[in-house]
Amino acid sequence: MSEVTRILNAIEQGNRGAVDQLLPAVYQELRQLAARKLSREKPGQTLQATALVHEAYQRLVGAGGQAWKSRTRFFVAAAEAMRRILIENARRKKSLKYGGGHQRIDLTDGVVVAENGMAVEDLIALDEALERLAQKDQIKAELVKLRFFGGLTSAEAAEVLGISHNTADQYWAYARAWLRLEITKGAGGPPS
After folding, report:
1. Measured between alpha carbons, how far is 70 from 59 in angstroms, rounded to an integer?
2. Which own/partner contact pairs does 169-175 have at CB distance under 8 Å and 24+ positions apart?
3. What is the pLDDT of residue 147?
4. Rounded CA gap, 120 and 189, in Å?
5. Contact 82, 150 (CB under 8 A)
6. Rounded to 5 degrees, what are φ and ψ at 68?
7. What angle do CA 27, 31, 35 make, to 5 degrees?
8. pLDDT digits (tens, 9 = 90+) for 28-45
9. In the list 4, 19, 157, 174, which could disulfide-bond 146, CB 3.0-4.6 Å?
10. Is 130 exposed, middle or buried (0-12, 13-18, 19+ CB in 10 A)?
11. What is the pLDDT of residue 136?
């Protein structure tokens, strides 16, 4: 049993001191996960890896936490929390309250850019399509969340999901094509 799993079990049994042990035990891995994800973003991002880690951690344990059965389940939940934070941030940027009615023009490419290097509208369209994929096939949706929002490699995501690396690669190819088609249909254009 890993140290993280031991701490998670202690939290589940009501040991309040274990919550204080969790962040030091997982911080470096969460920081690497967030840094890997944010390293692919365009310059000018407003969300930094440290802030993303802290916000995700607060969501995971701030409201009393959840009962995670293992280190793997904790990191799946962390990747999901990071995904939600990025989506909320994109929606906030788009909302009228925050100037979403005005297009921010970056002098290099003329597109409003979200934290992951995508246009805000594209990120929101991806999230909506991802929700539809989750209704159709939860494993493929989880794979996309882990790879795209969590920054995991194919091998890492396969391990988290308990599937083979080859299966993960096949699911990834299918999910990317399916999402591309769904996003294109949602935009009202013909599939490409």
Report:
1. 18
2. 171/139, 171/140, 171/143, 172/143, 172/144, 172/147, 174/140, 175/133, 175/137, 175/140, 175/141, 175/143, 175/144
3. 86
4. 18
5. yes
6. -95, 130
7. 180
8. 888 887 777 666 555 555
9. 157
10. buried
11. 94
Tokens representing residue 75 in the block: 């990191």
The tokens for 144 are 């996309």
Burial (CB count <10 Å: 0-12, 13-18, 19+), residue 162:
exposed
Cα–Cα distance for residue pair 185/191, rounded to 1 Å: 7
Domain boundaries, the chain: 3-186
Instruction: Say whether 6 sits in a helix, a strand or coil.
Output: helix
Q: Residue 66: CB partners within 8 Å, gap ≥ 6?
A: 60, 77
- pLDDT bin (cut points 50, 70, 90) of residue 137 is very high
